[in-house]
Amino acid sequence: MQQTTTDQCITKLARRPKVAVLMPEEVRSRIFTREVETALQAFAEPVFVSDDTLASGDFASALEDVTAAITGWRSPSLSSFLAPHGSIAFVSHAAGSVKSLGVENALRDGHIRVSHSAPEIALAVAEFTLTQILAHLRLHREQDAALRGDMGWQEMRTGQLGQLLAAQNVGLVGLGYVGRLVLDRLRPFGCTVSVYDPFISAEQAKQLGVTLLDLETLFARCRVVSLHAANLPATEGMIKRSHLEAMAPGALLVNTARAGLIEAGAMIHALQQGRIFAAIDTFDIEPLPQDDPLRTQGNVYLSPHCAGHTRESYIRQGLAAVEDVRRYFAGETLKQEILREKAAVLA
To answer: What topology does CATH give the domain 121-302?
Structure first.
C-alpha cells in the first residue's frame, strides 16, 4: 500500500536524528558515561566515530545522514568534517576552549551553529584555584613535609605560621566564567578582591563589590594574584617580568589559565629569585619536559593541567553538550551558543 502524505510526515517525525560523537575513545570513555549516552539516545541516534576514522579523516560513510555532532578534547577541526558533509548544521563541544576547532571560520560562513561546555569546566577550575590559594596561605605542603621530617612538634605548630585568607587582598586578572566563580567562592572569606579586566566597567565593578586596578597596581598591591584571562593574541605575554618583580616577598601567583599569558622566561626568572611563590597548572610545552627548570624549584606548586578535571565535571560537560543538541532539534534557545561576534574573544 502506498504511503499517504500524512503517513510520510509521521514517519519522518518518528525518525530520530543522527548525532555523530567525534572524539577519541579515550576522551569519550571519560565524558560519555552511561548517563550521558542514555540522555542522547532519548531523542537521537548516536553515531560513535571510531579512532581509525578520526585518524584517517575519511568521514564520508561515518557521517552519512548526520545532522549534528558532539566534539571534545582532541577532536578534528570543523573544516575537516563539515566541508564534505553539508548535512551537519550544529556542533556541540563537550569541552571548554574551541580554538582548536577553527570555530571562527565556520561561524563566519554562517552555515553552522556551535555551543560549548566551558561553564561546566569553570566550576572545577574555580575550586582548584581556591584550593591552591588556601594550601599556600596555610602552609599545607610545608607542614606536611615538616611532620614527615625531623622538625619538632611545637616548632611546626608555632614556628611556621600561616596566613588568613580573610586578611588578604586577592587580585583576579580576568572576570570570565572562571574568574567570576572564583570571586563567588572568595566572598564568604571576607577578603578584599581587586580585579583587572578591560571589559568590566566601573559600575559593574561596584555591583560586584570589587576594586578595578591596572595590572601594575594589582601586582604590587595583592599578595595573591590569580590569572583567568582568555588566551588571545591581545593577551599573549600580558604579564611582564616587571609585574612579577613588583609582587611582595612571599606573594603567590596562581595560573590555571594559560602559560602564554606570561612573558616568555619571566616566570622561571621570578621563581629563581626566590621572592615569590607560584601554583602553575598550564605550561608552554605539555607534557612538561623532565628537564624543565620548573621541576626543580621549591617555591612552585605544579599540576598537570588538571584544574578542570573531576569525575563530576566530565559528566556535566557531556550532559550539557547533549542538552544543547536536544534544544537544537527542539527549536529551543541554546544554553551555551557561541555567537559569531563573540568567537574571537573566547578562550
So the answer is: Rossmann fold (3.40.50)
Per annotation, catalytic residue among 25, 35, 155, 286 = 286
Contact 196, 215 (CB under 8 A): yes
Residue 305 annotated in active site: yes
List the catalytic residue out of 228, 258, 316, 327.
258
CB atoms within 10 A of CB 337: 16
Distance separating alpha carbons of residues 129 and 109, to the nearest angstrom: 38
In the chain the first and final C-alpha atoms are separated, in Å, by 56
| pLDDT at residue 343 is higher than 70 | no
Dihedral-angle region of residue 346 (phi above 0 means left; psi in -120 to 50 means alpha; beta otherwise): beta
Instruction: Indicate if the alpha-carbon torsion angle 121, 123, 129, 134 is positive or negative.
Output: negative
- With cell 597548572, the residue in question is 281
Q: What fold, for 18-116+311-339?
A: Rossmann fold (3.40.50)
Band the pLDDT of 13: cuts 50, 70, 90.
Answer: very low
Residue type, 150: D
Cα–Cα distance between 294 and 268 in angstroms, integer?
7
**Domain spans in the chain, listed from the N-terminal domain onward:** 18-116+311-339, 121-302
Q: Given the DSSP bridges, would you call strands 300-302 and 277-280 parallel, antiparallel or unpaired?
A: parallel
For residue range 102-127, list pLDDT tens digits in order.
Answer: 887 778 777 799 999 999 999 999 99
CA 275-281-284 angle, 5° bins = 90
The answer to whether 295 is a known catalytic residue is no
**Three-state DSSP class for residue 262:** strand
pLDDT in tens, 70-95: 999 999 999 899 876 679 999 999 99
In the chain, pLDDT over 90 holds for what percent of residues? 82
Q: Catalytic residue, from 138, 140, 305, 340: name it.
A: 305
